[in-house]
Amino acid sequence: MQQKRQPELVEGNLPVFVFPTELIFYADDQSKHKQVLTLYNPYEFALKFKVLCTTPNKYVVVDAAGAVKPQCCVDIVIRHRDVRSCHYGVIDKFRLQVSEQSQRKALGRKEVIATLLPSAKEQQKEEEEERIKEHLTESICTYSNRSVSSGPSLLTVFLGVVCIAALMLPTLGDMESLVPLYLHLSVNQKLVAAYILGC
Fold it and tell me: Where in the cell is it found (predicted)?
């Protein structure tokens, strides 16, 4: 009986499962100065993790390093400690590096972006305005598509009337007609009008 060997894991190729992938802090809401990142381990082996940041002086990461048991998850608490207006809109990055517990090399990494915004209310207002714009755009597109496809265009109707009139005119050679001779059409002209009308 052959023992099943675990495939060799290549450095940096292991998918890392983190939620959320974006952190938004609001300066006017004290409860939003703290966010939670959840790191999932769907694998059959334990992982160790490390959280790195592009601006560590702005954040406090509770348990910046640790371990995750197989098929478990851990919550990583991140606090924004510098909520000044000069930091509004600045995008910072966190990197979660994971490795097998017995090894040093990083098997996978995932970046999470963090942004400080002035007000949750302003953000909600902007999101609501964006939703209204999208809804109006969809409505206009739907209406214009409906108006185009609701019936034949004016040109099509006009062309149909002209073809019907052409078919009703007398054919060349009819002498007993009250219609002037220049309005008499050839058989070929009538065939073209019938073909167009059929289309």
Answer: Endoplasmic reticulum membrane; Golgi apparatus membrane
Task: Please report which helix (H) or strand (E) contains residue 91, including its range.
Answer: strand 91-100
Tell me whether the omega of the peptide bond preceding residue 20 falls within 30 degrees of 0, making it cis: yes
Round to the nearest angstrom and report the end-to-end CA distance of the chain: 74
**In angstroms, rounded to a whole number, what is the distance separating the alpha carbons of residues 81 and 182?**
92
User: Given this model, what pLDDT does residue 149 score?
Assistant: 55
Instruction: Encode pLDDT of 61-119 as tens digits.
Output: 988 899 999 999 999 999 988 888 888 888 899 999 998 877 778 788 999 999 888 87
What whole-number distance in Å separates Cα of residue 18 and Cα of residue 78?
A: 14
What pTM value is reported for the model? Answer: 0.54
Contact 79, 60 (CB under 8 A): yes
Rounded Cα gap, residues 146 and 153, in angstroms: 12
